[in-house]
Design goal:
about 425 residues, alpha+beta, Helix Hairpins, Heat Shock Protein 90, 3 domains, five-stranded antiparallel sheet, five-stranded mixed sheet, 12 helices, binds adenosine-5'-diphosphate, two-component regulatory system, histidine kinase, phosphoprotein, Sig_transdc_His_kin-like_C
Length: about 425
């Protein structure tokens, strides 16, 4: 971007210089000297200069008198208008303001020192002709030096005058900008491309960082999850090695039960990881027509047996709704939501059904720890876990709700969450009727 800005700036300066040269050349072609403007006016001017010089030489007037007479000559307005007309006619594309200022008025006596009546830098107060009020935004077109020779009574004297023409083109910035349009558009385009590439790169970087964080989290979680059943299995086998335990039926059975439970848990974990490694369109649903309320009730009843201490209620406002669903996947999904409710501190859960805008809605309402508003949009992302979940020492892989969302989406449905931290959570699943 710095290079671009530098290039644009350099081009601008170059174009300004080029523009000035063009104007200088064109004006040079129009007025090679002022005498071709109007010779009678010019001879009037020469006569004035001559009489002023002669009077000065004779000591009849001072330097100041000469200067003020030169600058207040009567023919000046007429010459200004003539020049203006000439510019308008010959340079119709530009609106030009100009000023011709007198810099030097010097009398020479042949071999002796010059007598400078005045010699100043170009200065708008010394304007001879023109309509410019200031030289600030004007540029020098040319300087013009003239010497008159032999016209004075006293032949030794010569008069040297120097004047400069300054020009300002109205709206010159616009003219230059127009000439730079192509460069400006190209630069803007390349700057926009650059910014876009930068934004894309940063976004990709952030995304990659997020993916890598998620992976690290997942690996930590799964190691944590695998450790407990493996440790229990290790201890159980150690215990079984003791003969007195093997001889006691009750102890033996209890250890075998533990081994089987831990085995199931490991199996479940592996199943969960396997199931979630499939993308949404790879999930193969085996749909069948089922009575949804019955189906929900059977899940609720099974859940009550597993978690007898949880107060699990139903509030069905629909009856015998027949939907085409995949029983196996949806059972796992609903159980994920119910198990989450228990995992995240609920004592009572209500399962509600109703019809909302032609959709079958199933709501799981719990009184658990709730979820902060700013975390809710991430809940259904793969491997996402609210940090607070770790604080409460609850285990999980962050796959439960991701799976729910995938399965419901595969049924062309949607999942949403309403929750407040500390006030419980409501998950609503909408299915097509
Ligand atoms: P996890 O294996 O961590 O339970 P989930 O995908 O099932 O993964 O849930 C994602 C996160 O959502 C959890 O870590 C938890 O913080 C939050 N969460 C899910 N269900 C509930 C709930 N009923 N109450 C409070 N927080 C919940």
């Amino acid at each position: 971007m710095t290079v671009q800005c530098y290039l644009v700036k350099t081009t601008y300066e170059y174009k300004v210089a080029q523009f000035h040269t063009q104007i200088k050349n064109e004006i040079g072609l129009i007025t090679n000297n002022y005498s071709d403007i109007d010779s009678t006016l010019i001879s009037k001017k020469e006569a004035l200069y001559k009489s002023l010089s002669e009077n000065y030489i004779k000591g009849k007037n001072t330097k100041l008198d000469v200067k003020s007479s030169v600058l207040q000559a009567q023919y000046q307005n007429a010459i200004t208008q003539k020049l203006q007309h000439k510019f308008e006619r010959d340079l119709p594309n530009f609106k030009i303001d100009f000023a011709i200022v007198l810099n030097k008025f010097i009398l020479y006596k042949n071999t002796q020192k010059a007598d400078t009546i005045f010699s100043e830098k170009p200065f708008i107060q010394n304007k001879l002709y023109g309509n410019l009020a200031s030289l600030n935004h004007a540029f020098l077109v040319r300087s013009y030096v003239r010497t008159t020779n032999g016209t004075f009574e006293n032949q030794d004297y010569k008069l040297l005058t120097e004047d400069s023409m300054y020009v300002s083109v109205i709206d010159w910035e616009m003219i230059i900008l127009k000439r730079m349009t192509f460069i400006l558009v190209l630069s803007l385009f390349s700057i926009i491309t650059l910014i876009s590439l930068f934004v894309i790169a940063i976004k990709a970087l952030i995304k990659q960082k997020k993916v890598s964080d998620v992976k690290t989290d997942f690996i930590n979680n799964i190691t944590h999850e695998l450790k407990t059943p493996l440790a229990t299995l290790g201890i159980s086998t150690k215990i079984l090695e003791q003969k007195n335990i093997r001889d006691n039926d009750e102890n033996f059975n209890s250890i075998v039960n533990t081994i089987s439970r831990q085995n199931n848990r490991l199996q479940n974990l592996i199943d969960q990881v396997m199931a979630n490694s499939l993308a949404e369109n790879e999930i193969e649903l085996k749909k069948e027509k089922i009575e949804t309320e019955d189906f929900l009730l059977s899940i609720v009843n099974d859940f009550k047996i597993t978690f007898p201490k949880i107060n699990l209620k139903t509030d069905f406002q629909t009856q015998k709704t027949i939907l085409v669903l995949d029983k196996f996947h949806l059972t796992t999904a609903f159980l994920n939501v119910l198990e989450n409710a228990v995992k995240y501190g609920s004592n009572s859960i209500t399962v509600k059904t109703k019809i909302i805008e032609n959709q079958f809605s199933i709501t799981f309402e719990d009184d658990g720890i709730g979820i902060a508003k700013n975390k809710q949009s991430f809940l259904f992302e793969k491997f996402y876990r609210v940090e607070q979940g770790n604080l409460h020492n609850t285990k999980g892989l962050g796959l439960g709700l991701y799976y729910v969302n995938q399965i419901v989406k595969a049924h062309q449905g949607s999942v949403s969450v309403i929750s407040d931290l500390g006030k419980g959570t409501q998950f609503t699943i909408l299915l097509k009727v």
